[in-house]
Amino acid sequence: MNEVIDNLQAIQVESPVDKIIRQLKHLIVSGQLKPGDKLPAERALVERFGVGRSYVREAILKLEFYGLLKTTPQSGTYVSGLSIKVLDSLISDLIRYNKDDFSAMIEARYYLELDAVRLAAERKTEEDVIAIEQAMRDYQTKVNQGENAVEEDMLFHIAVAKATKNSVIESMILLLIPDLIKNITENKICGENRESITMKEHLSILNAIKAGDIDAAENSMAVHLDEILQISRADFVAKMFLKKK
């Protein structure tokens, strides 16, 4: 009986982002969207898909990260010049991207963000600081109003990533952050009153970046991410224990 249970797999529930990516894949594979074609405007996609703007943006960002779409300022977003067969294969791999390995994603995010915040403290510009401050204020406003602040939390970390001036680190964080923060928040993995603690930790990170204090910035980010890192490590140990049984 245990062998039967071990061979069963959890039902995979697609997120709105995966559904958007799947529909875009269908348009490409069917030839309705060809390499070099321009995508409809973001507003039109939001209305057509019937989802929030953040889901459409996240889907486009992921497709851009994998080189499947290319956005040109003041021009729009275009389908990559890759062949239909290559696009089909890459999009299928992206949809199958393993979001269930929670502990691995958390660990990758932890070390990636420690490096990112050190670079941000070293390389930030006045514009970067303004962007991080605005993201922090937007998060605080939503929390104080009792509203969901998942998107504002993501934007804070993305603003820090942009300050690194390293496009690869920024792209990797853009890939990891949305799924992780939504998972953590929606499942209340860090407890009910995490928002007030997060506001203080965001402020500590911001102050260290503004001061250009690299070590303080890293320490502040480590404190911010430590709770979820410990939870993910406990989850990893539990999974290893179950495999040995």
From TrEMBL:
Organism: Arcticibacter svalbardensis MN12-7
Protein's recorded name: Transcriptional regulator, GntR family
Matches recorded under InterPro entries: GntR_C, TF_FadR/GntR_C, Tscrpt_reg_HTH_GntR, WH-like_DNA-bd_sf, WH_DNA-bd_sf
GO molecular function, one term: DNA binding
UniProt-listed Pfam families: FCD, GntR
Record key words, sorted: DNA-binding, Transcription, Transcription regulation
Domain of life: Bacteria
Domain HTH gntR-type: start-end pairs: 14-82
UniProt cross-references to PROSITE patterns, sorted A to Z: HTH_GNTR
